[in-house]
## 1
Amino acid sequence: MNDAHNAKYYTMNDSLCRTEQNKMAICLIVAADKNGAIATGDGIPWHLPSDLDHFKKTTKGNAVIMGRKTFESIGRPLPDRVNIVLTKNKDYDVTRWNTGPSEAVVVAHTTEQALILAHGSPMIFIIGGGEIYEAFFEMASSIIYTEVDTEIEAADDTVYFPYFKDTQAWKLYAFKSHRADARNDHAFTIKWYSRPS
């Protein structure tokens, strides 16, 4: 069955999306291909500035939790967000990235530490990679899932988002489609899921 069955189509703007999200505590936000692949050893294999704009607007002013590899692939703290890097490396040093209050980054070594550091944030967004999504999957109350209209060629280093679409644990309640255009390599659909109460 199509996962959009019985879902309401929203031509919503980001402020409306944020109103819905503010009812939720931990949100997984991700972009994946048709098979749930989110990255390869070479990084993210698509260029979607419009989805990045959506990501920025959605997460701005909130806490973002990510793994070390994800943080290093970004190459800097995300501005106007509480950046929390979750790593097992006890010696991981982020001092050189702390250039100001708008680009602060802190390190956590357990999921519990990461959540404590995020305390007080309106929303806690989990932004990858694969192991970090797995670690917070059962704690999350919502998923913002960008499905990219492409298929990555599977390889040993392909990273996948946890499978969830055909389970009853999640309900699709809104989606918004975007065509491929001069800015975006592929068409994509942003889907909002929540756990049924």
## 2
Amino acid sequence: MQVMKKQEFMSTFRFWYTWLLIASWLIIFFGLYLVAFTRTSLFSPLDSLISRSFEIPNDLTAPPKLLVWLCGVLGATMIGWGIFVWFIVNGPLLRKERWAWFAMTIGMIAWFIPDTLISVICGANFNAVLNVMFLLLFLVPLIFIYKDFKEVPYASQYEPME
């Protein structure tokens, strides 16, 4: 049995596929965290950052409805996004359908640019840092697996919708 070198392992499709599946679960769990724990003691690290950035009183006994609503909606969106990514990764990306690679890559960039810009403009630099972490979580594996999608026809197996 030949031992695979670390560099060869890191460049294999299976490794990055597994990475993306785990990343999709991290997105789902982070969304659940936002929905379930806003303005609780378990939320205090993020609560402190949000409160300082937007001058919200950091009083857990009187949670502002707006913050609870925003975190709830954001968390629910992240849950849906994570599930969507899981299905794309576990289906068409695993089958190496080229459109899935482009959909994920372009979707990530389309989310990252406006979200990060508005975060920086509004002084929510903590969110910009989180955005960079989430982008790298997905973009690094997508870059490494690009070579697996170069020779695959873009959408030759699909007929246009009428």
## 3
Amino acid sequence: MNAKKLKARFSVLSKLSFRHAKKKASVQTEDSRAKAAKEKEGIGFAESVNEIFREFKEEKLRKERFAVMGVGNDLKGDDGVGFYVVDRLRKKLGSDDFFMLIKTAMPEDHVREIKEFAPTLLIIVDAADFGKGTGSMKVINDYEISEAFISTHTTPLTIFLRLYNADQPVKSPVTMIGIQRRSNEFGQQMCGQVRKAGDAVVDIISGLYEKKLLGTMLESEIERRSSVMKRIGSRLKKK
């Protein structure tokens, strides 16, 4: 084969090789682009999911959380009003990630649980003796606790509050609602006046929670409702 023919054949082979290489490179480029697009899409999806979770977490932190602890013993007459309030709130509000409900005769057992929940406000409901008419409601101040709550619990509420506020730079808000008891004798039924007060507390807490006013208006509404109930009671006695 002369040099001229060899040169012509070489030229043809070179062109074929170039075309094959170009086509292969084009396919690889398309594959790379497709792979990059998929990776980008995957990254975008992951970022979207992370953003959703981040927003959910931030929203959960922004939204106020409340805990209601009913303290007492439902086998001892009016001392069961705290349990009664919690049971009724559970029926009215159902399951809610921002609302914790606890019934206990030993509040000190729930210190860690409540701290981890980190409520905006802890509400304690218990039968009390502050010298008013049966079924009266009152927001109990810190200095009144030892006298108002004749404790049927393992430890006084003052001990619970001390444990609850321990190791916290800022004192956690706590509202204690006392309902004047008539009897806490074992085996007695809760009296009508105390039950009615329990219903009022349930209505106040659930109503303010739904209106997003529980953290700001609970104490004033308890006092207002207590005054209304007192006036109604006085009128009924006069009749």
